[in-house]
């Protein structure tokens, strides 16, 4: 579970960094033409960064909400990523990398859903839930 929590934490921190970079670009290059405003990228980086980091903490502490929160957050994060790809990718290179990105998406979802759906993992989170009541 520690490895999965670190993976989710890495996703969260990467999004926080991405949001910070987008915010700095927005202030340094306000007239930079982009398909979406840099403020949108900064806000989404901050939102997903905080969400995924909180889920990683929940996983690490075996909180019941950590399991279902991570399942929901990672799935919705990937849906959001693909909606952005389909709506805003402007270059040929971005379209050429879609098969590779699809493979990585499926792999991430398989790891998260597969790990958190194991009977022993579900029982661990359920036992921790009963202990808190």
Poorly predicted tracts of residues: none
The residue fraction in helices comes out at over 70%
Quick one: biggest sheet? none
Judging from the principal axes of the Cα atoms, what is the shape? Answer: globular
Cα-to-Cα separation, first versus last residue: 23 Å
Number of helical elements: 6
Beta strand count: 0
Which class of secondary structure composition applies to the elements? mainly alpha
Q: Rounded to an integer, what's the Rg over CA atoms?
A: 17 Å
Mean of pLDDT = 93
Instruction: List SSEs in N-to-C order.
Output: HHHHHH
Q: State the domain count.
A: 1
Proportion of residues in β-strands:
under 5%
What report would you give on this structure?
Helix 2 runs antiparallel to helix 3. The protein contains six helices and no strands. Helix content is 85%, strand content 0%. It is mostly helical and 133 residues long. The radius of gyration is 17 Å and the shape is globular. The chain has one domain (2-132).
